[in-house]
């Protein structure tokens, strides 16, 4: 018997590595000469950033920088001061598998930080962060899609498949100048700042993506006339990221992250500092995917001879969905002793989790809200409150894994009483969710012509009383006939019977 099979290449995802490791962040530093002595430490924060992930066979090297920011009151005048120390780190991870050409996703979050003043100028920092690494390789696997032999009955299933084109990360540096406004005082000391890259749009052409976004810089500083002031600026970002295999019809998912930021104040001819040179390193990661539907064989048998299918359990990515959105959380903060002037307010996401429940993406976590105020005597006081949140978003597809990040953006407040501040914070959720399903596919068929079936005593027609819920395919296998013949003979429109029914089972041999 001549058996001609047709094969189709199916994109399958092979997970190579998925684990979390701890990264210690320890350092000891002395304040530079231009910083006054410490009277009281108000707050010490640790923010880790990933700069790069380098893959070499089974070894992945993650390089990053942990930014330690110190807020304190100076000893001489009790004014608010700030100082930031970058601490570089590197982590080598052995995945035990060759990860060349694989897609690597790395995230890092702060676990804790402890700050101890050794003396008025020297500090000892001990902290830790959790680094999570996920590595997946997309490979093509041949699966049976059809057969030309009339004696071989095949069961086809239409499968939506999301084929990963690949991921590419591009790092670039933005150099800009921030000019203080006319209403602002000249700068004496930078207390704290943050830089945020916001994705706007992505247009794809052949092998390239044109990405647009913006870079927002926010600054709190002490002016020459001893006032706490704020400055903010925004710059456009435009980059071309190359990714082989990308087409105009491809689905793209983009993440933009600031991995380093440096501010350098400059003094003019009048001795005033009214401009700041800003240097920011930004990582843009773009992932491309193609969607298609494939008809693949999930079961087969031969009506004349024994047929042995080769089945494999393959992990197929059915969908990728952009889960990016912005939502607002709020909480009340009680400030004992009353509220003087509010210097600044900010929020930080300290933990988050994501799950799929009843068709919704459920985002849960904790936000730390921090407020700098002055009391009646003009002294700076720091107040902090953690509060939990939950946000739900309807999704088009279920998901089994996610590559999501959550960060605090704009913060605002209103004073609701003499000792109560209502804090509102916009949280930006960015990233994707994916649905991976383990599917049994037939990758080959072996016909045993030396094992013929006994066909001499088969009746031309069989009467069968079927129950609701039975599969026509299973009935055809049992009686060694064809499912489409049974459906045509009994005028059926679906494989699964919706009610009890008497069926005529024709023989096709």
Record field, number of beta strands: 21
Strand content range: over 45%
Mean pLDDT across all residues, rounded? 91
N-to-C CA distance: 15 Å
Total separate domains: 4
Q: How much helix is in the residues?
A: under 10%
Polypeptide structure, described:
The protein has helices at residues 472-478, 483-489; strands at 5-30, 38-56, 59-74, 80-94, 103-117, 122-147, 152-179, 187-205, 208-223, 228-242, 251-267, 273-302, 305-322, 325-334, 342-357, 360-374, 380-394, 401-417, 420-452, 461-466, 501-506. By secondary structure, the protein is mainly beta. The chain has four domains: 1-149, no CATH class; 155-293, no CATH class; 324-452, no CATH class; 454-509, LysM domain (Membrane-bound Lytic Murein Transglycosylase D, Chain A), CATH 3.10.350.10. The radius of gyration is 32 Å and the shape is elongated. The mean pLDDT is 91. Strands 13, 14, 18 and 19 form a four-stranded antiparallel sheet that branches. Strands 1-6-5 form a three-stranded antiparallel sheet, with no helix packed on it.
Write the layout of secondary structure elements.
Elements: E1 5-30, E2 38-56, E3 59-74, E4 80-94, E5 103-117, E6 122-147, E7 152-179, E8 187-205, E9 208-223, E10 228-242, E11 251-267, E12 273-302, E13 305-322, E14 325-334, E15 342-357, E16 360-374, E17 380-394, E18 401-417, E19 420-452, E20 461-466, H1 472-478, H2 483-489, E21 501-506
Antiparallel strand pairs: 1-6, 2-3, 3-4, 5-6, 7-12, 8-9, 9-10, 11-12, 13-19, 14-19, 15-16, 16-17, 18-19, 20-21
């Amino acid at each position: 018997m001549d058996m001609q099979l047709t094969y189709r290449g199916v994109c399958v995802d092979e997970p190579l590595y998925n684990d979390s490791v701890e990264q210690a962040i320890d350092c000891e530093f002395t304040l530079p000469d231009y910083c006054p002595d410490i009277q009281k430490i108000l707050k010490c924060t640790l923010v880790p950033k990933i700069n790069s992930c380098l893959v070499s066979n089974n070894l992945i090297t993650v390089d990053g920088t942990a930014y330690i920011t110190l807020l304190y009151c100076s000893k001489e005048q009790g004014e608010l001061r700030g100082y930031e120390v970058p601490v570089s780190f590197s982590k080598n991870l052995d995945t035990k598998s060759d990860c060349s050409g694989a897609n690597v996703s790395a995230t890092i979050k702060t676990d804790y930080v402890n700050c101890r003043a050794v003396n008025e100028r020297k500090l000892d920092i001990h902290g830790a962060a959790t680094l999570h690494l996920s590595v997946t390789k997309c490979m093509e696997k041949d699966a049976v899609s059809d057969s030309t032999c009339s004696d071989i009955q095949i069961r086809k299933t239409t499968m939506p498949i999301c084929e990963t084109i690949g991921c590419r990360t591009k790092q670039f540096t933005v150099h800009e100048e921030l000019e203080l406004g006319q209403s602002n005082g000249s700068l004496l000391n930078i207390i704290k700042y943050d830089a945020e890259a916001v994705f706007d749009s992505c247009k794809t052409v052949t092998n390239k993506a044109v990405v647009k976004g913006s870079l927002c810089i926010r600054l709190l500083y002490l002016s020459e006339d001893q006032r706490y002031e704020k400055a903010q600026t925004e710059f456009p970002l435009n980059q071309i990221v190359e990714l082989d295999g990308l087409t105009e019809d491809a689905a793209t998912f983009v993440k933009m992250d600031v991995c380093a930021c440096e501010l350098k104040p400059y003094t003019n001819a009048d001795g005033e500092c009214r401009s700041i040179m800003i240097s920011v390193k930004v990582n843009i990661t773009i992932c491309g995917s193609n969607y298609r539907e494939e008809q693949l064989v999930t079961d087969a048998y031969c009506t004349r001879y024994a047929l042995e299918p080769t089945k494999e359990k393959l992990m197929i990515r059915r969908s990728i969905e952009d889960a990016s959105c912005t939502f607002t959380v709020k909480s009340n903060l009680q400030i004992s002793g009353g509220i003087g002037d509010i210097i600044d307010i900010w929020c930080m996401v300290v933990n988050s989790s994501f799950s799929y429940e009843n068709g919704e993406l459920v985002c849960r976590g904790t936000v730390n809200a921090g407020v700098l105020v002055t009391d009646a005597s003009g002294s700076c006081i720091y107040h902090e409150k953690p509060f939990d949140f939950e946000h739900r978003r309807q999704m088009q597809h279920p998901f089994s894994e996610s590559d999501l990040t959550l960060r605090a953006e704009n913060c605002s407040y209103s004073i609701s009483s003499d000792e109560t501040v209502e804090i509102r914070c916009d949280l930006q959720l960015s990233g994707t969710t994916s649905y991976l399903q383990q599917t049994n596919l037939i990758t080959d068929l072996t016909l045993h012509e030396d094992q013929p079936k006994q066909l001499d005593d088969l009746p031309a027609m069989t009467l069968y009383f079927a129950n609701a819920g039975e599969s026509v395919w299973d009935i055809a296998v049992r009686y060694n006939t064809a499912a489409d013949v049974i459906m045509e003979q009994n005028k059926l429109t679906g494989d699964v019977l919706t009610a009890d029914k008497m069926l005529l089972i024709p023989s096709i041999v």
